[in-house]
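[#protein-structures] MJ: dropping Isoprenylcysteine carboxyl methyltransferase here for a structure pass
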Amino acid sequence: MEMISRPWFALVLYGVYMALAFGWRSLRQRRATGSTGFRGVSGPPGSLPWLGGVLFAVAMLLGLAAPVAELAGWIGPLAEPGSLVVGFGAVAILAGILGTLWSQGAMGASWRIGVSEAERTSLVTRGPFAVVRNPIFSFMMLAALGMALILPNAAALASFAALVTAIELQVRAVEEPYLRRAHGEAYAAYCAKVGRFLPGLGLARR
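AK: finished. structure tokens for Isoprenylcysteine carboxyl methyltransferase:
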């Protein structure tokens, strides 16, 4: 990066992602439904659902810490990325931002962060959900990978690892069991033909 340093560039992209995917989306959800969509961490402390929620928060904080710590000189890159790698990372983050917003929009009023057993939202299978069951999470992981490519430091790599682990726990221990209870056979049929995070991968048996 000639005009702007890699850490500043990553920090700006991360700020844009968080502002749009969480701030703007929550405000839009509140205007449309009266609720921000935040449902909090599931499960009692120490449980797998709880651990997934905590790791998700840790991943978000580490994602912010990665550029800030490098700017402050507290940590440095484990390897110096070339311009091609930085460019690919930027494309991955931008694709992650656009894909996340697209997927959130496809969910409409059913969009939530977390799960409430008292709620019964519609089963969304249109748009990106026709290709993978969890496109928001897929695009989030893509954006986190892009961040790690631009800033290959310990915090960014730990953020990516924590996010992947958190998403796996959230999907397998919280969201999929909830959707099975809520939608029964319709969700089972959906899982049998649509992959979990990538097309064709993670199909479930009927």
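MJ: nice. The chain has a mean pLDDT of 91.
AK: one more thing. Residues 6-25+41-111+121-193 form a domain with the Four Helix Bundle (Hemerythrin (Met), subunit A) fold (CATH 1.20.120.1630).
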